[in-house]
Write a structure and sequence with these properties.
Blueprint (H helix, E strand, L loop, with lengths): L3 E7 L2 E7 L14 E6 L5 E3 L4 E2 L3 H20 L9 H35 L2 E5 L3 H7 L3 H7 L1 H15 L2 E5 L23 E3 L7 E3 H16 L18 H12 L3 H15 L2
The protein binds zinc ion.
Zinc ion (ZN) binds next to loops.
Length: about 270
Amino acid sequence: MPPQQSLTRRADGYYGQFCFDADRKEQGEYSGNVIGIDLGLKSFYKDQNNKAVECPKFLRKAEKRLKQQRRRLSRKFVKGAKPQSNNYHKQKKRLGRVHLKFQRQRKDWEIKLARNVVASNDVMVYEDLKVSNMVKNHPLAKSISDASWYQFTQSLDYYGRIWGKAVVAVPTNYTSQGCSNCGHRVKKSLSTRTHACPIDWGVEMCCDTNAALNILKKGMAILGIDWQNSTQRHWGSGEKSRTTEEIIASAMNGQPKIVSNVVESVTRILSL
Ligand SMILES: [Zn+2]
């Protein structure tokens, strides 16, 4: 097949694109670690061990610059004027370039972050957020679309495929309400930041950590792996866990073959 070609115009010039079909596969390194990822607005994500990854400062700064340029453009806009002034068009171009730079910086950061996450874990579970739905319904719509988790989760899938690791997207129901310890549903408003369970006395944690635990549990259940959070990073015992141990053993030896059984089931779930 001849390579596909396209020419794209961006704010800073024209770009030629050539698309080749290449199957990239590399030997992944296995660590025995798993991660449940709760994508959020306060932090970019939080995992089941309460570790938070924040949006970097340089991105927040770039966002500020972008807002400033947008304001300048609207100040130069004259209602009803056709055509708009030269200064307006100059500012429009400037805004385009700032926007492009911001997009590229963010994309670069998200891809590198995803690469790191997949490099240091064997199983990654995240929530299939269907960002466009949330953007329509959510009071925090703008920050959600700005958070742009899409690039990040796409990159998780991509590196998972390359390194033969399991990346699972789980449905969103009750991941934040359910208690990660006993499953009891605890209703929370958007502003509630802690999860306190009325059933098991003493279960109290950050609501994002609770969600990350639920997400991880769902993913592990989908993979058929018995995983408990009572002792963190404890991979169950008993009949079911034999496959788990095989997976870990093969992971430790860097044999992606057995792990790839897991990956296949993941691909099936993603295509539902
Ligand atoms: Zn509970």
